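Handout, section 3.2

Students often ask what a structure token actually looks like in practice. Rather than define it abstractly, here is a full record for SPW repeat protein. The first block is the sequence as you would receive it.
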Amino acid sequence: MATRAWSRPHDWAEVVLGVVAALSFLWVAHDSTTMWTMVVLGGLIALDGLLSLARPGLVYGEGVQVVLGVLLFISPWVMGYTGLTAASWSSWIIGGLAIILGAAALPVANAAHGRMAGTH
């Protein structure tokens, strides 16, 4: 498993998902609430992915990724944009994938953290 900085595919995928979510207002129908919800959550997902890439031993980053994925997944209901079909499906798909990727990266981050802790 890749534990060097900038080499973990899970984290790169999370960065891409975050960027896609943040920029999705360019190709899906939206209102102001929808746009800002997706921009903010997508941006946070991308930033957390970049942080995890830079610091592969930060286990909490993967947990944050899962939480952000859950927030994006539930945002159509919470923020009231289920009537905007493309935006809702974008949130559900990207949020679900962020949850899966964050959960899949937890063992990799734990292993990297364990190896880094052993080097101190």
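Discussion prompt for tutorial groups: Residues 9-117 form one domain. How would you have guessed this from the sequence alone?
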